[in-house]
Structure formats: C-alpha cells, structure tokens
C-alpha cells in the first residue's frame, strides 16, 4: 500500500510532468515553471481523485505550495503520518 | 495620432495601482524618464510581466516614439538571443537581475526592479514613420514573426473599444492577461485613454492574493480567454461576492456553449455586463463584440463589427456573400488592421501592406439579424488555451532539430506523429522550446498521402479515440500569468 505522501508526490510528477528530482517542498504555484494555472486546475482534480476528497474554491486558491497542499488535505481528513 | 501624449491631462487621477497608487502625472514622469534615456527613435525589447515597470516602460516608449517589441518576461533565453540577432534592439527593458543581459549588455537607467540594458555595438534602425509597436503572433511556437502596428492602429482600436464597452474614468480593470498579449494590452490601452485606474498584478486568478486584491481595490472589470472562464467556473464564480464588478469580457477563442450560457445567466443575475468578443493581433486586438444584452439570445456568436469596423464574407470564388446562413471567409476592414508582419529588422521600414483589410482565415456566417458565427478555420492553426499555434510552425521547429514529424489536432489538443522511435526526444523538445506539455506523440507506420504526395491529415489516426484525452497544458503566452 502506497503511503499518502508518496501518492501526493506522484500526483505532482504526473500532472506537472516533473522529474523525480524536481519534486521538493519548495514547489509553488506561479514560481515553479511547470506549475502554472493550467497545471493547477489539473493538479486539483488529480488530488481530488487520488484522495477522494472535494476541494472547495477557497481552498483551491490557498493550495499554492507543496506544503500548503498537505495542510489542506490534512484538514480534509487525509492522513500524512 | 498618439493618444498617450495627452494622458497627463488626467493629472492626479490614479493611473495604476501596483502595491500603491500612481497618478497619471507620476506615471508619465517615470515613463518619460525611461524613454528619455533611450533618447532617439529606435527599437527596444520590453520583457513584460504584469508589473509597474513593464507598464511604465511601454507607456514611455509609445509616448516618445520609441518602438517597443513586447515579449513575455519568461521567454526562453535561446529564443531571446535569436530575436536579438534578428532585430538588434538598441535597448532591452528587463528585470535588473537578468544574468544573461548583465553579461552581454551595458546597464543604464534603473527604475524599480527593471534596468534599461544597452547594446554594446550601436545599430541604426530604419523604422517606418507610422510604426509604433511590434507584438508576437503565434505566441509560443518560437517564431520570430511580429505584427507591425501603427499609432493609429493602437489608438483607433482603443477608442472603438472604449466606446462599445462604455469605458470611463471610474473603471478599474484588474490584470488577468499578460500585457504582451494583444488582448491584455488592449485592456490597458482602452482604459488609459479614458483616465481609468489599472490594478496591476502578476497573481494568478487561482490564488487568494488575486481575489483579495480584486475585492480590496474594488475592481470593476477583467477579461478572460476561455480557460479563465473554465477556472472561474471551477472556483464557483456564481457564489463570489464582488459587488464592484460590473463588466466581464471574453475573447481569445470560443467558450463552450455550456459555459457561454452559464456566464451569461450568472452575470445577468449579478448585474454584470458580459461581452463576448473576437479579434486577432493582426487587427491590433478586437474586431467584433457581442453586446451584453444579446449574450443569451445570441450565445455562441462573435457579434457584430466594432464601431468603425466592417465585416464581410467571401465565398471560394472571391464573391461577397450577401445572404444569411452562408459560410465564407471572414474579412475585416478597419483602421485597426495592422501594417503587416516583420520577420527581421529589414521589414521595419516597410509601409502598410494590408491597407486596412484583413483576411482572418476564419470561416463564418451571419444570421438573419446580422450576427456573425465562426464555424472553422482555413489555415492549419489550432488554439491552445486561447493562443494560436501554427501546426506548420511546430512541424518546422521539430524539423530544425532533425525530427520528421506531422502535426495535427483540434483546439486544445496537439498531436504529433512520427515514423521513428523518437517520441521521448520529441517530447523533450516540445517541452523545452515551446514550454508545452500534455500533448500526444504517436508512432505511425506511414504518412497518409494522396497521389500528389499531399498529406491527408484527416486520415491520421485519431488519438482521442485511442486513449482518454488529456488536455494540452501549456505555459503559454498568457497562461503563465493567470
């Protein structure tokens, strides 16, 4: 069984077309070249599918970095421990 | 005609909000200082983001008769070097920390985060007297082709837009599109000539910062390409509480019928005027608009010609179509039709080659009430998130790198066909050079051709049916700034 943090990481790799090594806690919307608005829309959908949650619009706009995404998913009941 | 020469008349009114207010007087002072440093009618590159530096630079250059080329600040360095070689700009207005320019050019004027970089070996440009501005056309294919625009083009179009949108000094647009994209720039031009306030931000509409700014500064309007409306829909725009918002515009491609209807209804309910528009950089920016009170009744239509413009349809034999519901090529006539293209600095002295007439390359018909509807495109162009991409240019780029490929596709879906096992390398080039991702590459046994050797694009396997379509995602000209 894959850990949630791995699923989270893989979602970034798949959606933003990143290399393994590119994924870090520094990834941020609008800063990471691949993470533009279009990538963001796809990323949110992917997170919703992978973790079976619904991310509302306010949280979509708060999901602006690798770390803030984890916080939001935690609030939605996703266990990262 | 250069309407920016008069904007200091708006004096103490706020021209720009960018972290703080800048009055028209203050903007003009800074803008003119940047341009004064250039000091002569010459060519400059302006590497644009939606920030005060880019905007003031642009205003100064236009006011002072310096011809700017507006480029996206995130332009790939290889492409920038290629453009520098082809056009030999005397100055480049760019972020001060641009390492490549720091090495190759001299520093002169500084304002905010930007520096005016000076060319080391002087070059004398021969610029046509009407030439005001150069904009890129097919955004991300890396083509060095620019659209040549005159002062008359810019300001006639801006005046026409200001008229049909009823823009006044109390309007406050917030930036959602890059200023180097003709649609984004037209919002800036049409509002500055009316003394309005532009809220300048590089923040994406997908961020909280954007909406806080929009609310805090009481934005009255913004524009969007279809993808912006898809994002707004995803964000539940109908539940937003933005009482200051009065006008929304949409252009840069056709909105899906579902979203078109939805936004017409939502806007109607919220008291927001929703305008659908159509244009091309080759016509400065806009050619048609659908009046907001027709947005539901004529959903899917590009509307009617903008004030001062005229639309006609031509059949295959070059005859004018006069009956409704007959498809022909859409031709636009107006003072905003560009002077022509430029492919190197030698084209900058060329005179007006279009004479006010633009063959749009789009097929259309008009209904019994005279409202136009686009049905397709003649040229091998697709729109990827509002940005025109020439399939031939993508083929050309891959060819330059030694890959023999065929490109096809529909809007938002780019397909690349190859005969060899080189998909990985092709993907890498497209990703690096065009900054596109999510497109599909497929190996085929042979290229379908007719007896004359002409490629039969319709006979290529349809990738959409092979696997679930993943939309093309691209860091395109405007997508980077959303």
From TrEMBL, chain B:
<dbReference type="Pfam" id="PF00501">
    <property type="entry name" value="AMP-binding"/>
</dbReference>
<dbReference type="InterPro" id="IPR020845">
    <property type="entry name" value="AMP-binding_CS"/>
</dbReference>
<feature type="domain" description="AMP-dependent synthetase/ligase">
    <location>
        <begin position="6"/>
        <end position="341"/>
    </location>
</feature>
<dbReference type="InterPro" id="IPR042099">
    <property type="entry name" value="ANL_N_sf"/>
</dbReference>
<dbReference type="InterPro" id="IPR050237">
    <property type="entry name" value="ATP-dep_AMP-bd_enzyme"/>
</dbReference>
<protein>
    <submittedName>
        <fullName>AMP-dependent synthetase</fullName>
    </submittedName>
</protein>
<dbReference type="InterPro" id="IPR000873">
    <property type="entry name" value="AMP-dep_synth/lig_dom"/>
</dbReference>
């Amino acid at each position: 069984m894959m850990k949630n943090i791995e699923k989270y990481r893989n979602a970034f790799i798949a959606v933003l077309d990143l290399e393994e090594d590119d994924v870090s806690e520094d990834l941020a919307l609008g800063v990471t070249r691949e993470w533009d608005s279009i990538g963001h829309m796809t990323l949110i959908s992917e997170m919703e599918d992978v973790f079976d949650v619904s991310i509302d619009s306010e949280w979509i706009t708060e999901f602006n970095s690798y770390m803030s995404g984890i916080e939001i998913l935690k609030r939605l009941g996703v266990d990262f421990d | 005609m250069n309407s920016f020469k008069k904007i200091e008349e708006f004096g103490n009114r706020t021209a720009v909000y960018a972290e703080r207010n800048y009055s028209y007087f203050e903007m003009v002072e800074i803008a003119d200082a940047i341009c004064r440093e250039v000091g002569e009618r010459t060519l400059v590159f302006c590497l644009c983001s939606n920030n005060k530096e880019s905007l003031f630079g642009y205003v100064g250059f236009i006011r002072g008769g310096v011809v700017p080329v507006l480029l996206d600040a995130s332009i790939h360095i290889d492409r920038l070097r290629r453009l520098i070689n082809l056009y030999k700009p005397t100055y480049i207005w760019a972020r001060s920390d641009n390492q490549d320019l720091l090495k190759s050019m001299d520093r002169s004027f500084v304002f905010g985060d930007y520096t005016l970089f000076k060319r080391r070996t002087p070059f004398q440009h021969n610029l046509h007297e009407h030439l005001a501005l150069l904009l890129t056309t097919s955004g991300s294919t890396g083509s060095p082709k620019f659209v040549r625009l005159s002062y008359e083009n810019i300001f006639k179009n801006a005046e026409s837009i200001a008229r049909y949108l009823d823009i006044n000094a109390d309007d406050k647009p917030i930036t959602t599109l890059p200023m180097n994209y003709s649609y984004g720039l037209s919002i800036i031009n049409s509002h500055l000539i009316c003394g309005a306030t532009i809220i300048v931000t590089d923040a994406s509409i997908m961020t909280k910062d954007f909406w806080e700014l929009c609310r805090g500064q009481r934005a009255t309007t913004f524009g969007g390409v279809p993808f912006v409306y898809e994002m707004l829909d995803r964000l539940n725009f109908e539940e937003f509480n933005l009482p200051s918002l009065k006008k929304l515009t949409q252009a840069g491609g056709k909105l899906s019928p579902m979203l078109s209807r939805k936004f017409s209804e939502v806007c109607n309910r919220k008291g927001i005027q929703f305008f659908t528009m159509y244009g091309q950089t080759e016509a400065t920016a806009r050619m048609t608009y659908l009046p907001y009170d027709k947005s539901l009744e004529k959903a899917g239509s590009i509307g009617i010609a903008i004030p001062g413009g005229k639309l006609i349809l031509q059949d295959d034999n070059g005859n004018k179509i006069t009956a409704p519901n007959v498809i022909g090529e859409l031709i636009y006539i107006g003072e905003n039709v560009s002077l022509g293209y430029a492919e190197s600095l030698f084209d900058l002295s060329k005179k007006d080659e279009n004479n006010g007439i633009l063959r749009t390359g789009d097929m259309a018909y008009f209904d019994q009430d005279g409202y136009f509807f686009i049905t397709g495109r003649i040229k091998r162009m697709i729109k990827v998130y509002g940005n025109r991409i020439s399939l031939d240019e993508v083929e050309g780029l891959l060819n330059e790198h030694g890959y023999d490929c065929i490109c096809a596709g529909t809007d938002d879906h780019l397909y690349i066909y190859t005969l060899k096992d080189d998909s990985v390398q092709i993907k890498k080039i497209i990703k690096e050079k065009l900054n596109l991702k999510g497109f599909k590459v497929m190996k085929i046994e042979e290229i379908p051709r007719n007896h004359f050797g002409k490629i039969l694009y319709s006979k290529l396997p349809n990738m959409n049916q092979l696997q679930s379509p993943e939309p093309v995602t691209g860091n395109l000209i405007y997508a980077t700034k959303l």
